[in-house]
Amino acid sequence: MQQNQEHTNTSASRRFCIAPMLDWTDRFYRRFARELSQHTWLYTEMVNTGAIIHGDPMRHLRFDPSENPIALQLGGSNAADLAHCAKVAEQWGYNEVNLNVGCPSERVQSGSFGACLMLEPDLVSDAVKAMRDACSIDVTVKHRIGIDQIEDYSFVRDFVGHVADAGCSTFIVHARNAILKGLSPKENRDIPPLKYAYAYQLKQDFPALEIIINGGITTIADSQMHLQHVDGVMLGREAYHNPWILSEVDAAIYGAPHIETTRRAVMEDLRGFVEAELAAGTPLRYVARHILGLYQGRPGARHWRRMLSDAALLKNADWRLIEEALNIVESRQD
């Protein structure tokens, strides 16, 4: 257990975050992302409280110390279970524990958590209070702006106000409605219209709260524009499919000195981590699948993706496969 681990980033803030994404933001992706940005706030995949209480904590909670600042996102609705998991998150060294009140999948709904909890603000408030009583790290909530046909701003305003009364001071606002029936989780990320003005209005109505905006943000310029209205931005799929965007974050968003680097240099910096994982028995594919977008939009990108997603090449492969892919793609750069 990484209990009471010292956090490495004492000036951390949630001005720029990577969204929790199931099957994507595992510890291998997060470790790679940290090589590109030292300040970006990272989130785990959503972890069901039952998986922590009854499953394998090492599998679900393990992270590399360099990943700080990092938040554990929980899925659940039982206040006692959430409080227990919040305490565990603190013991493992997480900077934040986040409650998912935004996932629209039917599997999540069947467990009575995710976006459907927006219809039960009392339950969410009770859960937040229990979590805050159980730990001293930040307890935050990620939610949508409405459910199904409930589109009036007053709905999300009242939800945020109610949960804030329980002590939550940070809200991550996915600025779309969640359609609980008829749309898949993927469609729920694209089809409901974005209403950024709702997130902006929340910040105006609750100036003391930290409001972070999420949904459809794809560029640093977009992020800077939103930051004129809210406290933070959260990117999802763009940060995964085009990870090089993260190399701009520290200077453009946090005002850190700009450090020139290259994609090869990033991979060389990651090499120690990769080789340690390989030595521990981790297959290379666990890392390789998360770096496929590194050369997105660059000459040789297709070859890079092909080599590092080829099951035959990946079988029993080690760092030399990445080195070979780097040599080939770098030979095609201007």
From TrEMBL:
Residues of the DUS-like FMN-binding domain: 18-318
Catalytic activity, reaction form: 5,6-dihydrouridine(20a) in tRNA + NADP(+) = uridine(20a) in tRNA + NADPH + H(+); 5,6-dihydrouridine(20a) in tRNA + NAD(+) = uridine(20a) in tRNA + NADH + H(+); 5,6-dihydrouridine(20) in tRNA + NADP(+) = uridine(20) in tRNA + NADPH + H(+); 5,6-dihydrouridine(20) in tRNA + NAD(+) = uridine(20) in tRNA + NADH + H(+)
Enzyme Commission designation: 1.3.1.91
Cofactor: FMN
Site (Interacts with tRNA): 100, 186, 189, 302, 305
Binding site for FMN: 20-22, 73, 142, 174, 214-216, 236-237
Coiled coil: none
Superkingdom as given in the UniProt entry: Bacteria
Molecular-function annotations in GO: flavin adenine dinucleotide binding; FMN binding; tRNA binding; tRNA-dihydrouridine20 synthase activity
Alphabetized UniProt keyword annotations: Flavoprotein, FMN, NADP, Nucleotide-binding, Oxidoreductase, RNA-binding, tRNA processing, tRNA-binding
First-tier enzyme category under EC: oxidoreductase
Active site: residue positions: 103 (proton donor)
Stated family: Belongs to the Dus family. DusA subfamily.
Function: Catalyzes the synthesis of 5,6-dihydrouridine (D), a modified base found in the D-loop of most tRNAs, via the reduction of the C5-C6 double bond in target uridines. Specifically modifies U20 and U20a in tRNAs.
Entry-linked NCBIfam families: PRK11815.1 (NF008774), yjbN (TIGR00742)
Full protein name: tRNA-dihydrouridine(20/20a) synthase
